[in-house]
Design goal:
Blueprint (H helix, E strand, L loop, with lengths): L3 H4 L1 H10 L6 H12 L5 H5 L17 H7 L1 H10 L3 H19 L33 H4 L2 H40 L1
Helix pairs in contact: 2-3, 2-9, 3-7, 5-7, 6-7
The protein binds zinc ion.
Zinc ion binds next to α7.
């Protein structure tokens, strides 16, 4: 996995691109949670569940099906965010699904059984620029941990931020033009 800091880059950058009106802060916070929730299966390690099984790490929480189901949190909360229910569902499902997709880009661990239970195939992207991060917190605060974070800055945060800022600029200029037309 990339570190949890990097998983939240996806909703944060999406919210920058879409703007506060479309993604209010509360929706962003739940989106950030959705982006890291699949790794709560790390708890499975502690419970002694085998790494390779679907109950273990990178198991069922890292599937498309899980993201679609977890998206229901967005369906439920959407009215509070001033969103249509389908939009709230899509927002949370997309934030959740970004997690296994990012995991596929890491150069270690086991692949992602994205289409489980329909297929047991574990996928990795053919291009895997992200250093896999140490799972144990103890090892995380080490030179290797720092190296992983630096790598993620360049491979995930920087490109996503560039795209987000470009989208923000484009959106602002469209809004300004539409505003001028309306006035
Ligand atoms: Zn993960």
């Amino acid at each position: 996995m990339p570190t949890i800091f990097t998983h939240v880059a996806v909703p944060v950058c999406a919210a920058i691109a879409l703007g506060k009106r479309r993604v209010p802060v509360a929706a962003l916070l739940v989106g950030m949670l959705a982006a890291i929730v699949p790794d709560f299966d790390g708890l499975a390690f502690k419970l002694g569940i085998a790494y390779g099984g679907m109950g273990g790490h990178r198991g069922f929480t890292h599937t498309l099906l899980f993201a679609l189901v977890f998206g229901l949190v967005g369906w439920w909360l959407a009215p509070r965010w001033g969103m249509r229910r389908a939009t709230g569902w899509a927002w949370i499902a997309l934030c959740t699904v970004s997690h296994p997709l990012l995991d596929m880009l890491t150069n270690g661990g086991i692949g992602i059984a994205f289409f489980w239970p329909f297929s047991d195939v574990r996928y990795f992207s053919p291009w895997r620029p992200i250093e896999v991060s140490p799972i144990a917190l103890k090892r995380f605060f080490s030179p290797r941990g720092a190296q992983v974070l630096l790598n993620e800055m360049f491979t995930v945060w920087a490109p996503l931020l560039v795209v987000a800022v470009l989208a923000l600029v484009a959106r602002r200029s469209v809004e300004r033009r539409d505003g001028a037309v309306a006035a």
